[in-house]
Structures are given as C-alpha cells and as structure tokens.
Amino acid sequence: MALRVVASALVLAALTLAAACAGDDADEPEPPEAAPQAALKIGLLLDSGEGVDEASMVRRQGFDLAIQHINDAGGVLGRPVTYVLADPTSDPDTAVEVARRLVEVEGVHALVGPSSSANSIPVAERVARPAGIPMISPSATSPLLTTADDGDFFFRTALSDIAQGPVLARLTRERGFERVGVVYRDDAWGRGLYETFAAAWDGDTTAVAIEPDAETYLPELRATGDGDALVVITFADEAETLVREALDAGLYDQFVFGDGARRQALVEVIGGDRLGGMYGTAGVANPGTEAQATWDAAYRATYGELPVTPYVRETYDAAIAIALAAQAAGRLDGAAIRDQLRAIGAAPGEVVIAGADGVTRALEVLAGGGEVDYEGAAVSLDWDANGDLVRGHIGIWRFTEDERIEDLEAVAFGE
To answer: Considering just the CA atoms, what is the radius of gyration of the chain in Å?
Structure first.
C-alpha cells in the first residue's frame, strides 16, 4: 500500500510539472508592451496682424524647414515632431492667453516665439515659468529680457540689442550726422533699442516715443526738432507712416533705421527714389560659415529665393535647438528639455551644422548617448546664464534706388 501511494504521488507530481511547463509555452499571457513615447509638440507663436504678416509668413517657412529636416531624420525619440501655430497678436495680455492655451489645452512641450519683446516678457514670466515650459524667441531683442523673471525658461536665438544699439549709433555717425531726431516705439523693444543707441551716441539728439497704430505722427515728428536725420526705431507699418509724413511735410529727407523697418515692402511703397541710399541695422547670420551656406542651399531648394526679412534663420535654429535638447534629455518634460539647451549648443561634443544632413547626424549622435555642438543657420548657440547669446553679428544694410535691400557689413559681437 505504501509503495502504491508513493508511486501515485510521483505520477501526480510529474503530471503537475508537465502541465506547468506546457503552460509556460501556451497559456501564460504575453507581457504588456511598453507605452509608446509621446511625440514632441511645439507651439509656434507668430503675429499675423497688419504690417507683420509678411515677416511672419517667411519666418514660418524657416520653422517648417526645421520640422522637415527633423522628421526626415526620423523625428525625436522615434516619433515625428508636430506643432501648433497660434497668433498672439500685438497685445501682451492676448499673447499670454494664447500661450497658456497652447500649454494647457494643446499640450505643447515647448514654445518658439513670440516674435516681439513686448509679448515675450509676459509670456516668459506668466506662462513659461509657472508651467515649466522652455521658450525660445527668434526675434525678441530687448535688453529687458535679460533680467525677466522667467525661471531660466526663456532663451533667444537673436542677439540682445546691447549689440545692435552701438552699431546703430556708429552707423549714424559714419553717415555724417551730428544732430538727429529719434522716434521709437513705446514698448519693451523700442525703449530697449533706443536706450542702447543713446548710450553709445555722442552727438545731439531729441527723442520722442510713439504709440503704435496712430493715424498720424506729425506732432511727434515736429517735436524731434530739426536734426540732420531721423533715426527710426519702429515696426515697418509705423515707419511707413512716419517716413511718408516726414518727407511730405519737409521735416526730414534722411533716415537711419533699426531692424524693425527692414522690409522690402517699405522701400517699394515709399519708392527707391526717396529711400534709396538710406541705411539700417539688424541681426544677421554669422557670415561665411558652412552652416549658413548649407542652410541657404536648402532654403533655396524649398522656397526659391533667400529671405530678405530678418530672423528667419533664427526661427529655424530655435526649432532645431528644442528638438535636439529633447532628444538629449530622453524625455519631454519641460525642465528636462531646458536643462539640455545649453549643452547641445556648445562644446564639448561633435560639431554638427544646420541643414538636413547635420540635423540627421545630431539626432543619431544624441540617440546613441553622445554629445553635440550645434552650429546654427544664423548663430552658434552659445547661451549664457540668462539665455542670451554670447556672440553673433549685427548687419549693416541699405535700401537701393531699384527698391532692394543690400547687405553691406556684418559687425561681430562677443568675439
């Protein structure tokens, strides 16, 4: 009897073991697959109002070219990058509302824009910082942004106007003017550029702030006195009114322009016979670099002609920087992306340049755990502790009699 019990127990054990082994192969469920990585989504803030629509359209082309290069390379973290376009208008409160919707409703991981300094400051302080979302403006140049309370979430791919103001003053002096009137937009950008100009200017000046969108600026023009020339620190639509009224009233026939007035449409509307030979300043790409040449070829192949509007290359670089930082971080939370922005734009790391091949190589290196030093289409993205570029160039340009914009010189900053 004892032997039969032992034998039965052995058989039962064997059957149980066989059933367990069969279950390992046939009945046990497959382990759950890992959740797919979310796609990087960028919010693009571009004005579409009167006087800025053309510039915004061209800057969007620079942004779209960046997204194309990123996604042709396989995207970020294995997924195509997407974006949401929004119009912040020229009103700072509206800009905050729009940016907040992009973050809270659309779920963007980073922002490119806004274009203007007046909008960038409140968006940085009231949206980017509390949400922990990095933002890169390609064209907000006010020195006030250096000290904005942004929690280190604001960066820019355009030089601060601490660089442009002295070049504008130098150009004005080199044009032979000793006494000038100045009209400047009464906002963060206009005040900032005027103050850096005034600090570097050694001649006589009478300056008047103007309100945007006024029907006439004749009172302000008359208040500037009788200078040798008028320095215009306004956007292009305001500059059109100012210049036309100054010419028609016989108040000025010589002008020097800040970057906001560098628009082909301005000389076409006023006429090359009246504005031909008038000079201005604006941020410009680092001259003669392989990155610039490669990007120029890619832009021409896609859109036909190179942009005359400033800050198009800078818009491209802003999008690329966010993508590379997200790939380097390995995840999409805002602080992680922010913490990699300075790393992907500076040594050490393999030098990679703007353009399809350079972006592809950068993403490959970062996916493999390496480091890159991205040389942008406009600038080398070496950011200081405030998110400001430590080097770059300010360009000197002029309108021509045949109604073109001619680039003349690139003045180095920070080198």
So the answer is: 28
